[in-house]
Write a structure and sequence with these properties.
Chain lengths: ~250, ~270
């Protein structure tokens, strides 16, 4: 229990709108250990973003309990949403400003992060001067600036081209490991899920619950890109693929 | 060390390309001047040669004399001053008030929904129709003219600034929410700075609207100002005076537009510290 960072128990969530009720999550159970990197895959519209929103506290579950033993939670979205009138440095400080955490120390830490991950020379540049991959890295550093121990990543690579996506996955994996964060990655890319995480959870169709779970046995310091050429990779891919395929085709 | 590309590094083709663009720009400028010169010459000539009746259509030399006369009487700058004052006040107050109201409507979705039909009707209504009411309420003087200018620019400002606010994606606001931002923080850190270009565009729209309001206001009530001169000139059949006032009005309106456009450029530069 001590090293369980996230525990969701029988969690359900219902959206209400004029056209009716929409159950997005049903009886979801999920544990994440401190320092773990897990991925969630599932049919689109099944409720993955809803689960992350509940974890971050933006919305509260309709029923069930959520425990998160992390003071700060970082949330990374598909798009970087850097503010184009702010410099890279000021974009990173945005999260500190919003949270009222601006101090010499937190500023120094953020600049140190920029330095460590090769973005320091761009600190006075504007977002439009950076490539998509670099911008997404800045978005990660903006998220790391306030030292969250839990990171929620909602399809952070899906707006990028294939080449950038593979490279950035390696870099971001590396950053998350070095900074010793716990991460939950939502993705629709099965290969990405397998290559980055220790566990892959397959969600059912809406309303989402955990349909199946796969444990990966890569060593922690194998970069995601190398894992793609591992022997077990293809089998794992096939299993998860057929799992999701079943889910998409099963119209009950 | 390599220096940054200088003109010498360009290929022949590229220099030819640049020259072609330059020539085109010069041609366009020349044509612009040519049109106005030909227009004025033709106007003057047709009056001189009796193709048109200068009593009805005036002529450049006659309205210049008319402007000179106004100047000699000391009335020129009085009229210009009054109209300019009314327009600037109507425009500034309309813009500030309009932006504040737009912020309020962005803040409260409920309020925005409640007031939506009223805004639509007010926007569709020709504000000029309110003239007689304004005169009764604010008196037949400068006040009702300013209110007229303000009213016309106000509604345009509210509508376009609010549309700009609503264009900011929900996802950007979602990001702010994941950071735990308050609504006030979302407003000041994202919505307002992101809307600077929209607000500036609204300014350019409403500066024209203020002129419309003020001139119409002057038609209705005033004893001075360019709008008054136009109406008065028309009534006593002094077409030279009417033309003179319209020409001055054109120049003022264009100048004011350029001031706003310059201000816009500065704001956008300041925003991105270019
Ligand atoms: N704000 C909302 N209001 C109503 N329904 C919503 C809202 N957000 C998402 N949904 C619905 O909930 C379901 C799950 O959405 P989401 O969690 O975004 O799925 P995913 O991230 O897995 O694609 C979808 O059917 C979606 O239409
Ligand atoms: Mg989603």
């Amino acid at each position: 229990m001590a090293d369980t960072l996230v525990r969701m128990k029988d969690v359900s969530f219902v959206y209400h709108d004029i056209s009716g009720e929409n159950k997005a999550v049903a009886d979801l159970n999920l544990d994440v250990k401190s320092g773990e990197f897990i991925s969630i895959v599932g049919p689109s519209g099944c409720g993955k973003t809803t689960v992350l929103s509940m974890l971050s506290g933006i919305i509260t579950p309709t029923s069930g309990t959520i425990e998160v033993n992390s003071k700060q939670i970082g949330y990374m979205l598909q798009r970087d949403h850097l503010l184009d009138w702010r410099t890279i440095e000021d974009n990173v400080f945005l999260s500190l400003q919003v949270k009222g955490l601006m101090s010499d120390e937190t500023k120094r830490n953020s600049l140190e992060l920029l330095r460590r991950y090769d973005l320091y020379s761009f600190k006075d540049s504007y977002p439009r001067q950076l490539s998509g991959g670099m911008r997404q890295k800045v978005a990660l550093i903006r998220t790391l600036a306030f030292s969250p121990s839990l990171l929620l990543l909602d399809e952070p690579f899906s707006a990028l081209d294939f080449h950038t996506r593979l490279k950035l996955a390696d870099e971001i994996y590396d950053i998350i490991r070095k900074e010793k964060k716990t991460a939950i990655l939502v993705t629709h890319d099965i290969s990405e899920a397998i290559s980055m995480s220790e566990r892959v959870l397959v969600f059912s169709k809406r309303p989402a619950h955990v349909k199946s779970e796969y444990k990966m046995n890569f060593t922690k310091d194998t970069p995601p890109f190398m894992r793609r050429s591992d022997n077990g990779f293809k089998d794992c891919f096939d299993m998860i693929w057929s799992d999701i395929d079943d889910e998409e085709n099963n119209n009950t | 060390m390599m220096k940054k590309t200088t003109i010498h590094d360009y290929s022949k083709e590229h220099i030819a390309y640049l020259n072609a663009i330059k020539r085109k720009n010069i041609f366009i400028s020349c044509m612009r001047y040519l049109i106005i010169i030909v227009f004025i010459l033709f106007w003057e000539l047709s009056a001189m040669l009796g193709w048109s009746d200068p009593f009805i259509s005036s002529s450049p030399s006659r309205f210049i004399v008319s402007i000179a006369n106004l100047y000699k009487e000391g009335a020129l700058f009085k009229h210009i001053g009054i109209t300019l004052f009314e327009t600037v006040v109507g425009f500034v107050v309309g813009t500030v008030l309009g932006t504040l109201i737009a912020i309020l409507l962005w803040w409260s979705n409920t309020l925005s929904r409640i007031l939506d039909p009223y805004l639509v009707v007010l926007n569709a209504l020709p504000k000029i129709a309110l003239g007689p009411i304004l005169i009764v309420w604010f008196g037949a003087g400068v006040e009702s003219i300013i209110v007229m200018g303000l009213l016309i620019s106000l509604i345009v400002t509210i509508m376009s600034v609010l549309a700009g606010f609503n264009e900011i994606t929900d996802e950007k606001q979602f990001l702010m929410k994941t950071l735990g931002a308050t609504k006030y923080q979302i407003l000041t850190m994202v919505v307002l700075p992101a809307s600077v270009p929209t607000i500036m565009n609204a300014l350019k729209l409403s500066v024209g609207m203020s002129w419309v309001g003020v001139i119409v206001g002057e038609y209705l009530v005033s004893k001075s100002g360019l709008g008054y001169l136009i109406v008065y000139g028309g009534q006593v059949f002094k077409l030279d005076l009417v033309m003179a006032s319209i020409v001055i009005l054109c120049i003022l309106a264009a100048l004011m537009y350029y001031v706003v456009a310059y201000f816009e450029k500065r704001m956008i530069k300041w925003r991105t510290h270019e």
